[in-house]
Design goal:
By secondary structure, this protein is α/β, with parallel strands linked by helices. The protein contains 13 helices and 9 strands. The chain has a domain of 246 residues: TIM Barrel (Alpha-Beta Barrel), CATH 3.20.20. The structure holds alpha-D-galactopyranose (GLA).
Length: 372
């Protein structure tokens, strides 16, 4: 019997084989969103070539810096939403998932936030009031447009203790709960998350799991954990990534791969980190690929991307979004961190805007999976 269901199946299979996906967003459609972080040149349209890549390849955007406290709220009572408004307008125009990043972090927050007009540190109540006002203003402005917010960024140390930021020192450990409460109050429909790096490390992961459990037990609506995934060719292993995603998914939160890039340059000190405060002096030995990435390393990088994407696909039900931290290699912060002025190759598009071997590898992984 040729049932209607069978006819439907045939139609779907024919469509699938007649039209192989050419973009990342199409290849991973139905699995998770594919995002890119937008710097100022992308947001303003100055980088038109990069914008065209975003429009063709991606369906989610993150603001590299445009929504951080220092940018939107540089002085007491003075907000500047020029860039942030353009960022959100870009996302609305192209029907993208628009992330808010971030509300409470120890970096890129002006010193005045923690002090009164005489320069003395604020009391707990005064800092909470300031935090609440900021969150209400920023989240409130984009209510219904930005649908996910990284509420707290990087609250944990590598050993799993709480980072001794001024947020923590002045308010205490519940500054995290309070930030989530205020964000929820400002937009009850927005999905709220905690974002950090190196959550693949057992001690840090354990602390993040305890944090998520504590928030959930207190009735705080945490929807996702962001794994930044500023990775290297060897860190984290696919097993570590797999176990980390499983551990968070088991808590009933989604996972966002929030800032993905793969550093191919030598890492002085050897320890994986994404601590923006790390500064290492230039040295030609630390910058070996100024004239191009050797083919052997390109292949190693492509295989590394494929390995990670296989893990992401395995967890497609738990992963809401995989976001790259930039579009082309020229955009990457890794060209200037932790050593200034290097030439890195961490993303899927070369400096000239062409897709590279890693792009091909990521596309291939999507077609390997027998799920259509
Ligand atoms: C952290 C932050 C990002 C960005 C990167 C460095 O991961 O979460 O916003 O600042 O550092 O570019």
């Amino acid at each position: 019997m040729r049932s209607a269901a069978w006819a439907g199946f045939l139609a779907v299979s024919l469509t699938a084989s007649a039209h192989a996906p050419t973009s990342l967003k199409e290849a991973y459609k139905g699995d998770f969103l594919i995002g890119a972080a937008m710097n100022a040149a992308l947001i303003t349209g100055e980088d038109a070539r990069g914008d065209a890549i975003i429009e063709t390849q991606f369906n989610a955007i993150s603001p590299a810096d445009a929504l951080k406290w220092a940018f939107v709220h540089p002085q007491p009572g003075k907000y500047d939403f020029t860039l942030a408004d353009q960022y959100v307008a870009f996302g609305l125009k192209h029907h993208m998932n628009i992330l808010g990043h971030n509300l409470v972090w120890h970096e890129e927050v002006p010193g005045w936030v923690f002090r009164d007009s005489k320069g003395h540190l604020l009391s707990r109540d005064a800092l909470l009031a300031r935090m609440r006002r900021h969150i209400q203003t920023v989240v409130g402005r984009y209510k219904g447009k930005i649908n996910c917010w990284d509420v707290v960024n990087e609250a944990l140390n590598e050993d799993g203790t709480m980072r001794q930021s001024l947020w923590y020192k002045i308010i205490g450990p519940d500054y995290i709960e309070k930030a989530f409460e205020y964000a929820h109050e400002a937009d009850p429909h927005a999905l709220l998350g905690y974002n950090d790096y190196n959550l693949e490390k057992p001690a840090k992961r354990k602390a993040a799991i305890a944090l998520v459990k504590r928030l959930k037990a207190d009735g705080i609506p945490i929807a996702y954990v962001g794994l930044q995934d500023h990775d290297s060719l060897t860190w984290p292993t696919v097993e570590q990534e797999d176990a980390t995603i499983s551990a968070f998914a088991a808590l009933g939160v989604k996972v966002a791969i929030s800032e993905l890039d793969i550093n191919v340059l030598p890492t002085p000190g050897g320890q994986p980190t994404a601590d923006v405060n790390l500064h290492i002096r230039q040295n030609p030995k630390l910058n070996p690929y100024v004239n191009g990435l050797p083919e052997s390393v390109q292949k190693e990088l492509a295989a590394r991307y494929a390995g990670l994407f296989r893990v992401f696909l395995k967890h497609r039900g738990q992963i809401m979004r995989v976001t790259f931290w930039g579009v082309t290699n020229g955009d990457s912060w890794l060209n200037n961190w932790p050593v200034k002025g290097r030439t890195d190759y961490p993303l899927l598009f070369g400096r000239n805007g062409s897709p590279n071997l890693s792009f091909d590898a990521v596309m291939r992984v999507a077609s390997e999976a027998s799920r259509h």
